[in-house]
Design brief:
Elements lengths: L1 H6 L2 H10 L8 H13 L1 H13 L1 H4 L4 H6 L12 E6 L5 H6 L3 E7 L2 H9 L4 E3 L13 E7 L8 H11 E12 L7 H6 L7 H10 L3 E8 L4 H14 L11 H13 L14 E7 L1
Parallel strand pairs: 1-2, 1-4, 2-3, 4-5
Antiparallel strand pairs: 5-7, 6-7
Helix pairs in contact: 2-3
Length: 282
């Protein structure tokens, strides 16, 4: 411990001192010095700048429970420097954005996707859900399973892997496709096993020992058009997936509609949508 406190970077020193050293044994002057060093450290300062400029820590769904767990009361500060693990990260499109919040690590089984992510400078490690865990148990403040559970035969085992990776009080973030009646050739092409309702997803996560904080649908604004297209394709016997990009103007319009929901999802529980978002805590 003494070596870690002297040789590690300021964020690691601060975390080690506040999370490992009992509160009764902490030296107030030492703690103040570590905070000053953290505030002067370039990487967390850049993270803080991005957090404050985007307002993410003021309204995001990842913040409150984890900050309370670690005794952090300041919203939008460098003391919320986090460790994030994305299971089934693919080429790292989301993982790249997670770097704004702290140390981000991805786990992926496909060697081609791993190579693409590493070529982009991302920390992606080879592993297969549910058997592998590429970080120490209890390492992560946040674990993300984004469009992963629907691909797995044993969803409970995958959630147990996520639970092992999380620190006490850590946050689990899940997205999955919604509503079995929307099942189509697209799901078969992508290797889906199932689609979920909010109640089904909640029960699966609670059985794994998590406390569910929030479940909401998203993809709501485009849901009528989405459902109509699925219904028409099923009626015509179309056996292709939906991954073909539409014309640029239409694609921009669809992207704008989808992005507009970022103002709704943190505040409302949307009643329908093409996908589900669940937030839970260990």
């Amino acid at each position: 411990m003494s070596w870690l406190l002297e040789a590690a970077s300021p964020p690691i020193q601060y975390r080690a001192y506040t999370e490992v050293v009992p509160q009764s044994a902490r030296d107030p002057e030492r703690l103040a010095a570590l905070r000053e060093a953290l505030l002067a450290y370039k990487i967390p300062r850049e993270i803080l700048r991005r957090q404050k400029s985007t307002g993410l820590w003021g309204t995001n769904l990842l913040g409150p429970a984890a900050s309370k767990t670690h005794g952090w009361t300041e919203v939008g500060t460098v003391y919320q420097y986090r460790r994030l693990l994305e299971l089934g990260c693919g080429t790292g499109n989301v993982l790249r954005a997670l770097g704004e919040f702290g140390d981000s690590v991805g786990m992926e089984r496909d060697e081609r996707l791993i190579a693409a992510a590493r070529a982009d400078g991302l920390d992606v490690r080879r592993g297969t859900i549910p058997g592998d865990l590429v970080v120490p148990e209890g390492w992560a403040d946040v674990v993300l399973l984004l469009d992963v559970l629907e691909h797995l035969d044993d969803e409970g085992a995958a959630l147990e892997t996520a639970r092992r990776a999380l620190a006490a009080g850590g946050t689990l973030v899940i997205t999955v496709p919604a509503f079995a009646w929307l099942w189509s050739a697209h799901d078969r092409a992508l290797g889906h096993r199932r689609r979920y309702t909010a109640g089904q997803l909640r029960r699966v996560v609670e059985r794994a020992g998590f406390a569910v904080a929030r479940v909401t649908y998203f993809g709501t604004l485009l849901f009528p058009a989405f459902a109509l297209v699925r219904w028409l394709k099923r009626g015509r016997g179309v056996a292709a997936h939906d991954l073909r990009r539409p014309p640029a103007a239409l694609n921009a319009l669809l992207a704008s509609c989808f992005a507009a929901e970022r103002h709704l999802v943190p505040r409302l529980r949307l009643p329908v949508g093409s996908s589900l978002l669940l937030i839970a805590h260990r």
